[in-house]
Amino acid sequence: MKILDSDHCISILRGKLDLIGKAESDEELAVTAISVGELTHGAHRSSRPEENLTRLDVLLAMFTVLSFDENSARRFGLLKAGLERAGDSLDDMDLQIASIAIEYNAILVTHNQRHFGRIDGVMLEDWLA
User: Fold this and answer.
1) What burial class does residue 94 get, using C-beta atoms within 10 Å of its C-beta: 0-12 exposed, 13-18 middle, 19+ buried?
2) Which residues contact 111 (CB under 8 A, 6 or more apart)?
3) What contacts 97, CB < 8 A, 6 or more positions away?
């Protein structure tokens, strides 16, 4: 399974990324509920919210949406505490996305490699590089 981060979803919506050839034909693609929130927020803030919400609905229909459940929440707490002990921090939403990816043993597809690379246990790919 590969989980697309918001940056990759935005690139698809803007026509800057084509999924053809990026994933195996039998590979499940997903997004997190956290990213759905980020993308919905962006659509509502845009100059054409109705159009962008419709386009977002079409995009999301192609993916499994993964929830932030109890296991992910516990992973989040563990990771956040570890970062704090190391004198580091990360945006909570990004840490939630990483927690979901780790719990599903999935690859997180993001352009923000340095940001997410600070989290132990998260596997990363970048289709925009």
Assistant:
1) buried
2) 5, 7, 8, 126, 128, 129
3) 3, 5, 32, 34, 35, 108
pTM of the model: 0.93
The whole domain housing 7 covers: 2-125
Structure tokens at 55: 């386009």
3-state secondary structure of 15: coil
Count how many domains the chain has: 1
Q: Name the residue type at position 63.
A: F
For residue 61, the domain's CATH number is 3.40.50.1010
DSSP string, 41-88: HHHHHSS-HHHHHHHHHHHHTTSEEEP--HHHHHHHHHHHHHHHHTT-
Rounded-to-integer distance, Cα 28 and Cα 3, Å: 9
pLDDT tens-digit map of 8-32: 999 999 999 988 878 877 889 999 9
Q: Are 96 and 34 in contact (CB under 8 A)?
A: yes
